[in-house]
Model the fold of this input.
Amino acid sequence: MNHLPLIISREYFTKVRNKSFIVMTFLSPLIFVGIFALVAYLSSLNNDTVRTISVLDESGYFSNDFKSTPQLKYNLFSGVALQEAKTIAENAEIYGLLHIPKTQSLEQLADQITFYSEDSPSLSLMNDINDLLESKVNTLKLKEAGIDSEIIKNLHINISANQETFQGKETSKLGSGLKLIFGGAAGYLLFMFIIIYGNMIMRSVIEEKTSRVIEVIISSVKPRTLLLGKIFGTTLAGITQFVVWVVLILVLMTVVTSVFGIDPSAGSPSQQVIENSVNGGTQQILQDVILEINNLPITNLVIMFILFFVGGYLLYASLYASVGAAVDSETDTQQFMMPILMPLILAVYVGFFTVIDNPHGTVSQVFSYIPFTSPVVMLMRIPFGVPLWQQIISVVILFATFIAMVWFAAKIYRVGILMYGKKPTYKEIFKWLKY
Done:
């Protein structure tokens, strides 16, 4: 093991000095921010588009209900026939024509309103128009029945039950959403990190094997030491690249939003929700968010995130390295990748479809102890409140499995790293474990 620091240092500096590594380290944030800026710019252009809708109200019910906005202008027709209104709207390149016919009853009116346009209108626009029409028609129907709609509206009571744990801690409706966001982000981040940098380790092993450099190294270093050195060295290089990405993205995002005046939330549904709730509930929502953040066990979340992140990555990195040692080219790895990826994919599915619904159910608990799925599943469960002893047991099992997997991977590595010209089968790899 006295060679381990040297191998780690060699692997680390070999990776970070590689031209493609340097280029992607600085180019990837530029591409990401460029795409972000382009999307935000296109969204702002879309928001600046003013749509004009002509309204032919032959019923006379909606003459004062269509209010124009900066993005939507209503043009009311009067004294013209439907065909003439359609011709005028089409020639003037108006976005659409809303025809409200005169009928004998409100029930007939609800089935005969038609929106004419050159192409299919946006879903959000049609929802807004339908909501406006439906609200007005229902008000008129109540009036026909001799019922004051304002009285009905004033009698309506909204109920939002308070949430509190048996220990007396207050929670809110936003609590589950915040926990889901944190857990899902942590699990998905680990998933992507394993895929990206696990493949980097595998390619590194294949390159050294095909260049015969490994034959020189293996003569003076034990396979297990070499395997651990490659895993730790590549991991440090990956962490370095990831940190640079985060810093550059934050700096570039700040520059882009300030210099070019791009609003990151322009055109997003959340922006519209916030604007619509300024006068009714935004302050309460912010209070609920702060309350839920204060209720989260931040220290526990950070510590366990680091432990599961490191343990999960090291476990899968050893598998990627053993696959790289067993083959001669990257195309030969496909038959061995499915057994590695399946537990990861299963963990993501269990996390999003089981943990969200029942974070403390039997399925969620079982998969949070299985080392190949626990890094993702347990990270998604922890925000919902997992006893500390369960977390410790899961971490111990994870790192114990990593140590055992390194032992098995080293056996494959020891034999496979010197095998050339033949694509091994699962049967042959199983024999290597007996050597």
In short: Residues 266-281 have pLDDT under 50 and may be disordered.
